[in-house]
Amino acid sequence: MSDVVELLAQVLPREALVTDPDRMESYRYDRAMFCPAGTPLAVVLARETAHVQAAVKIAAEAGVPVVPQGARSGLSGAANALDGCIVISLEKMDKVLAIEPIDRYVVTQPGVYNAVLSRAVAEHGLFYPPDPSSWEFCSIGGNLSTNSGGLCCVKYGVTTDYVLGLEVVLADGRVLRTGRKTVKGVAGYDLAKLIVGSEGTLGIITEATLALRPQAAQPRTMAALFDSGPAAGEAILEIIRSGVSLSLLEIMDQTTIRAVNAYKRMDLPEEAAAMLIAQSDAGGEAGAADVAMVAKLCRDNGAIECIEADDPAEGELLLEARRAALIALDELGTTMIDDVAVPRSRLAEFIGLCEDIARDLDITIGVLGHAGDGNMHPTVVFDQTDPAQAERAQQAFDKVMEVGLQLGGTITGEHGVGVLKRTWLAEEIGPVALDVHRAIKQALDPKNILNPGKIVAE
Amino acid sequence: MSDVVELLAQVLPREALVTDPDRMESYRYDRAMFCPAGTPLAVVLARETAHVQAAVKIAAEAGVPVVPQGARSGLSGAANALDGCIVISLEKMDKVLAIEPIDRYVVTQPGVYNAVLSRAVAEHGLFYPPDPSSWEFCSIGGNLSTNSGGLCCVKYGVTTDYVLGLEVVLADGRVLRTGRKTVKGVAGYDLAKLIVGSEGTLGIITEATLALRPQAAQPRTMAALFDSGPAAGEAILEIIRSGVSLSLLEIMDQTTIRAVNAYKRMDLPEEAAAMLIAQSDAGGEAGAADVAMVAKLCRDNGAIECIEADDPAEGELLLEARRAALIALDELGTTMIDDVAVPRSRLAEFIGLCEDIARDLDITIGVLGHAGDGNMHPTVVFDQTDPAQAERAQQAFDKVMEVGLQLGGTITGEHGVGVLKRTWLAEEIGPVALDVHRAIKQALDPKNILNPGKIVAE
Asked: A217-329: what CATH class?
């Protein structure tokens, strides 16, 4: 037993320390493809903030890296273990601590799953909007660390927009409480929003106070099918130009439609080049009018079919096609999911360029994503047993980011950088911003023990 | 002429450099009361980013402090000059550079006034929500540096919620471009939101890309008068509990109502203890229904009178009472405006405690503010020529913050810390957060030349 493990065993309860290699195996990886993962010395299953503090202090003293983990549902390798690290898992800190209906906030531990939190606040007539597709198996701590988005961002924004306050264990084991319980507040630097999205490199989130909204109305849903990608792109522009406030606006291309048809045995027309799905949660007649307007704009822009859901169940069915998309593409082969966001005005062009990449590299790319905010998930599908194809897949994955940047976009709209996109981050933000990243990292973690090498390569 | 001034004269065009003491006088202060202000060596009226860079480089080389200034409308002394500093005024960088209707963003220089920007984007059917009361004479750069709020925050949030990207001159004169032009993006640390609200202590904002919304509908307005403060407080709670989405919910107490009556010759009932003003911009019947519901809730909670505006002009008249409040209080004596935000559930209690403070210290406090988000501006009114009263006024000002903190609130909801509230900031955030502030400041400004001593005392 190494010294570090011995020290951990001295201060942690038995159930909070895992050193068995078989049990540790599942704590090595998140869900990112092709990211290296090391083997930890130990996994700490923290039950309380004091466990996190104790582990970080021991790590700091020993100069051992610490990798914080939530539900390991991330897609960029940010939670992957490093050789000889201490993994600090927050999955056992899974309690919703307080829900305040008048002040509209929830205080939660980081290990609570997004869906659990959402349902808990819904019982009080409240709404926590950020809704990553993985909401049933991703944790709030992970959402905070990657600044997750989701389907309803187009109307409600992303995780950082809901963060009021955080409790954070710093690199020296001290506890930082930052932020507030009030709607507004400008007392000092916005440390909470700095920690959000920092992927565990600046501190470990052990508690969060999150803003809530009143529950939205029952959504109205419609879908439109197009026989050409550009027609769908033009319809999206018209929808945005109209100013209609949608709570969801998603797109799937032909590859994705066909994959979903095969997987879910849905009856979507195989010849459709693109499908839009839109929702309005304005409620009552306003919601119906929003959806009718979107349907009209789709028809005016060449939709071959518009389906307006008669009731929430039918709406849910339409949405299921979108929700099943990634799993359906997974059935076709190994997938690498990109996460490029472009200015909305360039969306149609971006989709066209993804098609070009697929053709040029003779590889399958299913293009789907959040059309309403320009955040697309072109998903490269390939046969991993074919090295040449795997090579082309990697090229396609990179090429998608390259054209995203050329269109004024970003390499990651909501999945984060982790280890997967470190070199691309440098490309996107440039040397000055990279220096500022390093300066801030150095200021908050001078020994470089918190998730080292994530976001910014060492 | 000092060496520093000579160096500035060598690199800056003549019109960009002011050294005449009379002209420099007006660049010494913002609008904060009782904050010390020094005398600058020189005022740089930057016309372009390169001027800011040049001045910062000279300052860094000479170890001379730099104080960035917008429109000097701040209320915390953040823009006050320091002895021997270089003031860098951004007021001449006053151009709106681009408005993108589809992508819904505006690129602007920092010296543009909030109202000018708002009107410019309105011409494109777009809406920049943050609307500080000073919007006609405050600049976007100042709004960003203090993370300004305003009247419609209750529905639309504050400045930071609209910041997509920034150009920032760093302490060594390099230019940082951070953020994005896309709706979503998580590539690296959120440096933009760290700079926002940092009051010029981490960098000087020379350009901003701000998110816009589609123009809101014409607002519907109502006002309600109450014969007791607690009744008004209860009505506010019921309004919030109802989940109605208001674009404005303001409160004024009796002192403020009477001051407005005297100043504007309005016919508000002098015996009223409190007045609420509410707006909904939901549009059409939805807006009318919102306002009717608020009126009903006010009546159910003891309102003695409800005025529903028949048209926008009448609504504007009601709002004018609120807009005139601070000027009206100014007519009664010297004013010190507090800026405490409390959890909304504690608002009625907070207002009651402010009344207690006024009574106990035998001083006038006009309580007004943004009831919808719990951000109140209790305004101490006193006779500056009476030293004993001035002393009690200062005590009252501090006591208001103290009770705000006791109720789980913050010492500043939207005005910032500057020099006015530095000791209170330390009280609010505690030693660990203060250390993190210092570490970040040290990382980005190791020579401590950017607005030193603001936010965090040296």
From this structure: alpha beta
